[in-house]
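Help wanted!
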Amino acid sequence: MPKTEFSPSIDSRPTYSGLVSQGAAPAIMVADEAGAQALTDLAASDASVMDHAHVVLVGCGAAALGDVKPVALHEAPDFDAATPLVTQLLNTARMGTQIYLAGSEGLIGHVSALAFAAGMPVDEIQMEHRGSIARRMQCVHCKGITEDVTTDPFTCAHCGLTLFVRDHFSRRLGVFQGVCVDAETPGVVPETVEIQA
Amino acid sequence: MTMQFNDETFRGDYTYHNSPEAIRRFPFPFDQDTYMYSVNIEQHPGGPKGTPFEKMFDVDEHYVAEMKDREITLAEDPLRCQSLPHMELAGWDLLELIMVSKARDYPDLFTLHRDGNDWHWINKPLGIEKKFTFLDATTLPCGPMEYITRQTQGDFALLHERDNNLWMDAGMITSQADWSLDFDVGMNFFEWHAPVPKARKMGVFDKALKFLLAVGQGQHYRRLNWTMTVNPRLDTSPENYHKWGPEKRTITPENVGQKQFLRVELQTFFRLPRSNALAFPIRCYLMNLEDIATKPKWGRRLHRVLRDIDPDLAEYKGFAVNQKTIVDYLSQFDDGAPTSPGIFPD
Ligand code: HEM
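Answered by r_m:
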């Protein structure tokens, strides 16, 4: 699956300009199954990028990386399981460590928020979107996060309000903002549509 | 004490009201009969005696009631006040700026005695007397930014400067025109302004940021911004949109004069001495259409501005659904006569 091209949007919406090798620097790489392809493409462009790379694969096995051999490879069944390890890697990262994230908006949002919390300069993180365009949405009312949102509007998994999907994005939280769609006219909800890239 | 403080509410029964003096000094934001975004920045303080532009931090008849309303909002939602760890020094800078200014400008309301870092602060309207050690957070009941902004009208953002940008790394935001501090903390100037229509393409934000980055020590500036709010509600946050949203649809031709408020933000900019952060107070003034129309120039002008405004701005500011009712009501005050330049009534 190729790199996703998103339509032009507002300034807070991340653009994921794609992974570019920063050479044989220490690196933390996190990817899901679709994103693993971006890592193999990265290694094909410059094999040395894997010399000091810790790769964390979320929801897929090592086979997704083909014959690419990073210095360490970890597998986690989902985000929650990956979080302690990724947090540990971020907190103990040396100055100059490169971060590469590839996969869904949810994966990128989740890990970039962990990087923010660890005090990493978020604008220097490399990101490439591959695969699902489902969004990680935060309800502005109850603050609960609903993963894998593919429709607009959607139902908040926590408080049950019907929320519309904004393009406004917080890098600190790694989420898009969801706002009550029928706040002014309770019960009057527009037709549900699929989210577009 | 010379100033009388209103007993009034900004929610529920909405007993908020403006005295004739408050109407006279209202910071009407339009200096001509049309409006579009611009880099409308000027020196602060400075302005005719008695106007809200005269002092660094204007204190008016709503002070005590506004602080009570902030207390209610914070109790319900502590995330309205946030400060990233590196912003505590900026909080002390802000506390100093406000205490020193208020004690100088309103000596019968506020007193500050300083002996080195041993400070003694007296706030008569709120009945607060506090001895503390400047720069020692353990001597205050909460962080310095929270402490002083619980005693100062208006919202406050503290911006950290790095990489040629400003980052919203702290704030006390309980009377916002529909934006979320919790969501925006950590964003830069272009990110938090992203939802605003048109302005980026017009070059307004590039020019404004350049100006702000050049603000030096001891320099202060201001600008006015405005929107429309149904009922005199300070907490028009996105967090509570599902609670105040239904009120927006209660406007009728009969009640629009009383229920529809022009909401003016007096925004000021101060470079802070120790942290080099920028303080951005956002002071909110609310006045209903009926009171505005008591000044013939304001009634005429507001009618023309709201009738002719760009539809994208009416939508963004959230009054498009009531625009027709508002403009119809205001048309009775517009006899077509020319208006004088400037914001002050004739
Ligand atoms: C550094 C201090 C500033 C802060 C913290 C700030 C913050 C904000 C925020 C949070 C919003 C609401 C955005 C949303 O819809 O989520 C906003 C709106 C806006 N800001 Fe700023 N701003 C600052 C300085 C400026 C300056 C210097 C200008 C100069 C032109 C400006 C122009 C605007 C405009 C035009 C809007 C749209 C307002 C409306 O139509 O009601 N801002 N600002």
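OP: Thanks! One thing I noticed: The interface with chain A takes residues 79, 163, 180, 182-187, 190-195, 200, 238-242, 245-246, 248-249, 321 of chain B (CB under 8 Å).
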